[in-house]
């Protein structure tokens, strides 16, 4: 098994392959991500184009081939287009890669279905704006809520964002109208560094009515997307994008949402990732607060917040900002948890000894170790694997 | 040790003494209640007037004596006045006594202070209205909230009370303006049986503006008070009264309250008694919802409710309406809990054997057993004490 971050990590071949793979499957695709973990991006691309992985993205590859898909060409075009817009590509081996998003490697949604297949870490990120991505996201909070927000929701969002900016927290939101827009505008007004995580290329203003806002964000903060320039904001991409917002931040605040809002799905991602999941209550007579109340009622891990003071308190709680490894096991799949436990019971363990101790096939152990390493739960040494002292 | 409910229980001497004792200490007074538990009401009255219990209510007795206090006379006058208003006296040995209020015997508030001394069960109750008290309160819910309620709070209270009346729940509230009034008016409109628990005599309309409402309640439902007719609604009595409302009902709903509202204190009583403590959220921008949010944030046992459906669900939860003994230990003081545990580990135990097993003085065991019996947690048999199968 080759290791993730092979010799070619960060090379132009690696970067090119990561871009090209986005044409073959949506970001977060489990099979694709596992292949890249095992073989690296260039070899994965080669295997796919050679038909060595018939199970993975077969239809997409067939389509791509029929259209005369040329990886180098699409990557070059994307990079060229990005350059025109002052955007850059960030890959996992880059210094500004936000390590926190790697925790998606261990996300268990517990729900089958199309969208819950696309929950793995991103292969690469496109960024517009001059701040380093990791540093900007280090102390960051997602603000989410309805596009059809009421004056109440906007007022509350303004209040919370102001309070977060005053304490130098980065505010992260989508690009939609309503709460997203209110969050960014307030962050701009307060001299903060707004980050908009988009479900389309960073060169595509969507909604068009926010075009001027996106320009301001690109100048003052960051526009971030997993999709290459030019990619369209398809409906399902907003939900795929939400996992990234949840993973990239320390916690998420839900201000207003109807029960079936996409903002609720973002909160579920935050809960699965053990992020601070903060919810603003509202009038029980308002349908735009019904989703908030439903979440507060059904998930004991959510926290009711009434303003910036409550939010800052929730973020300051131990285990939030620098969560201890013990507190993150809950989001591990059972096999990873078994492997981790076996690692923690030894000084240094080899994969073979872990297989013996856990009763799992060596192959399974070898698949789980990179995930645990990415999540900052184990470290590799020359002699084998040891438990990590602290998360990366 | 004499048992509570001696031969004289329910006799005219017992009734007279219980009325007269109200002149010597506020309802719920711990020392007074303990004496009545140990000696019965008539003997307690005698001991107090003889000066045999100098520690208890000494100042009040001195004052009473100075004023030529005549127990028979004050009791006769109170009964006479009650009769004029169609009110009756209900004592613990009466069939319509609401057994649930006896659980106040084991209430631990965990907070020292003047008011938290007055938390024991009532010695007697004054009732106006034709329904039997116990039956009326059997399926009952307290509605509480600010007197200075907003239209939002009133709207929500109306909605919840309507839903409760539709399912034949009795609605219990105080007599104040705002939420109390809204609850009673809605119950009347919905054909329910409103119960107003007052902090003064049932013949005294307070506030006077609600005089007509009290008449309607007396005709359709019940007016209830621990204070004899003519007694004034002193400030501290509202807080003493709240423990009765909490104990008499299956659960309490807080609709709107500022953080220092008396309604919050009622909710704390409900929590201490392990009643369903249901709280309606509201706009975080409204100070009248700030108390609700504070309670929801600080007490995990509170339940966020958004309307009648949520309230009915909370009331239907196992352990609510007929709570199992196991679920009630949490409200016991440590010594009572020790004694109970020792009882549960034996078939039949004598007080002496319980003292040996628990390491507590026999005197302490003898004091705790009546409380546990009242709370329906132990039963006395000819051979000793056994654990109760189910609460009384």
From TrEMBL, chains A, B:
Domain Smf/DprA SLOG span(s) in chain numbering: 90-315
Transmembrane segments annotated in the record for this chain: none
Highest taxon of the lineage: Bacteria
DprA winged helix domain mapped to chain residues: 325-382
Family: Belongs to the DprA/Smf family.
PANTHER family: PROTEIN SMF
Protein name: DNA-protecting protein DprA
Source organism: Paractinoplanes hotanensis
């Amino acid at each position: 098994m080759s290791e993730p971050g092979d010799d070619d990590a960060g090379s132009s071949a690696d970067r090119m392959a990561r871009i090209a793979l986005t044409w073959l499957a949506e970001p977060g695709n489990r099979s694709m991500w596992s292949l890249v973990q095992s073989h690296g991006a260039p070899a994965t691309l080669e295997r796919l184009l050679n038909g060595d992985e018939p199970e993975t993205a077969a239809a997409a590859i067939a389509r791509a081939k029929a259209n005369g898909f040329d990886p180098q060409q699409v990557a070059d075009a994307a990079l060229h287009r990005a350059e025109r817009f002052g955007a850059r590509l960030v890959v996992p081996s880059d210094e500004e890669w936000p390590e926190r998003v790697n925790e998606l490697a261990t996300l268990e949604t517990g729900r089958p279905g199309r969208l819950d297949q696309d929950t793995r870490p991103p292969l690469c990120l496109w960024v517009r704006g001059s701040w380093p991505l990791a540093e900007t996201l280090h102390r960051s909070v997602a603000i989410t809520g309805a596009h059809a927000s009421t004056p109440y929701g906007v007022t509350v969002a303004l209040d919370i964002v102001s309070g977060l900016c005053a304490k130098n927290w980065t505010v992260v939101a989508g690009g939609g109208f309503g709460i997203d827009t209110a969050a960014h505008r307030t962050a701009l007004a307060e001299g903060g560094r707004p980050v908009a995580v988009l479900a389309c290329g960073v060169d595509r203003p969507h909604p068009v009515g926010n075009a001027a806002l996106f320009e301001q964000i690109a100048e003052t903060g960051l526009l971030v997307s997993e999709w290459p320039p030019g990619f369209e904001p398809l409906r399902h991409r907003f939900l795929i994008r939400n996992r990234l917002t949840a993973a990239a931040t320390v916690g998420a605040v839900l201000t207003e949402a109807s029960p079936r809002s996409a903002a609720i799905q973002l909160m579920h991602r935050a809960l699965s990732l053990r992020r601070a999941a903060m919810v603003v209550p509202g009038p029980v007579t308002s349908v735009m607060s019904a989703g908030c109340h439903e979440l507060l009622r059904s998930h004991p891990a959510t926290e009711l917040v009434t303003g910036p003071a409550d939010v800052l308190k929730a973020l300051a709680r131990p285990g939030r900002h620098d969560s201890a490894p013990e507190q993150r096991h809950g989001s591990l799949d059972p096999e990873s948890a078994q492997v981790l436990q076996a690692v923690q019971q030894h000084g240094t363990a080899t994969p073979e000894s872990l297989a013996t101790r856990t009763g799992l096939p060596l192959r399974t152990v070898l698949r789980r170790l990179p995930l645990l390493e990415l999540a900052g739960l184990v470290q590799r040494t020359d002699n084998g694997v040891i438990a990590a002292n602290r998360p990366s």
